[in-house]
Every structure is written in C-alpha cells, then in structure tokens.
Amino acid sequence: MSGPLESITSELITRALDVSMQKHQGISNNIANADTLGYKPLAVNFDDVMQQVKTVFEAGGDYESVKSSLAAIDLTPELDSTATSVMIDQQVVEMVKNTTHYQALLSAREQLGGIMKLAIRGDRG
C-alpha cells in the first residue's frame, strides 16, 4: 500500500539509483576479473533500462501498477557483447561517470524530499 507522500517521481529516482548500483557492481566485477583468462565483461545499459521505464510510464496506470512494473524490470548485469576483454582504463572512466550519476540522483532525491517538506510545512519556515 502506498503512503500519502509516495510519488512516481520518488519511485523513478529509486529505480534509477538501483540501476546505477548494479552498473557499479558490474564495473567492479570487471576490474576485479580483468586478468582472469576467458572472462567476459559485464554491462548494465542504463539507457535500455530507462527505455523500459519510459514504456511503463507511457502505459499509464495508477501508482501501484507503475511501482510494480518498475520493480519487475531486470537489472542483472549481462555479458557485454561488444567487448572481448576488460580495458581497465575504460572501466575506471565508466566507474567515475557512474559515481557522478549516482551522486546526481542522490541530490535529486534530497531535493524532492525538500520540496515535500516545504509543501507540508507551508509558509511556516
């Protein structure tokens, strides 16, 4: 059951944070296994996942149906079909980009919380 302050925006930010965490895990595995013979790099394609999220939103529905559809999206890192080996420099760059993205999402979540707090307080700063 959803509470009065839950929102689609909050769910979207939470799901985007989940995607970012999974991407970070995939990158970490790639770096840890860079010297493992026959290891194939893992990847989480943020754009593909967000396209699935967009499809969920375009289908419409109430909060609970959107929330359950978002939860059903698979975030498991998959083998990167375009890579044959781990390029450590490239993985480190991806990790830095992903960390920056994660921090921006945390900031968005904080700002959303601030907006909710302001709405609840009203003018009583």
Structural class: mainly alpha
Q: Which strand-content bin applies to the residues?
A: under 5%
Largest sheet: 2 strands, antiparallel
How many extended strands?
2
Arithmetic mean pLDDT: 84
Helical content class: 55-70%
Q: What is the strand arrangement across the widest sheet?
A: 1-2
What separation lies between the terminal Cα atoms? 31 Å
Judging from the principal axes of the Cα atoms, what is the shape?
elongated
Number of helices: 4
- CA-atom Rg in angstroms: 18 Å
Q: Which runs of at least 5 residues are low in confidence (pLDDT < 50)?
A: none
Taken in chain order, the helices and strands follow as HEHHEH
Q: Could you name the key traits of this structure?
A:
mainly alpha; about 5% strand; elongated
Summarize the structure.
The chain is mainly α and 125 residues long. 66% of the residues lie in helices and 3% in strands. Helix 1 (8-32) runs antiparallel to helix 2, helix 1 (8-32) packs parallel to helix 3 (63-71) and helix 1 runs antiparallel to helix 4 (88-121).
Provide a descriptive summary of the structure in words.
By secondary structure, this protein is mainly α. 66% of the residues lie in helices and 3% in strands. It has helices at residues 8-32, 46-59, 63-71, 88-121; strands at 42-43, 78-79. It has a two-stranded antiparallel sheet with strand order 1-2. Helix 1 packs antiparallel against helix 2, helix 1 (8-32) runs parallel beside helix 3 and helix 1 packs antiparallel against helix 4 (88-121). The model has no long low-confidence stretch (mean pLDDT 84).
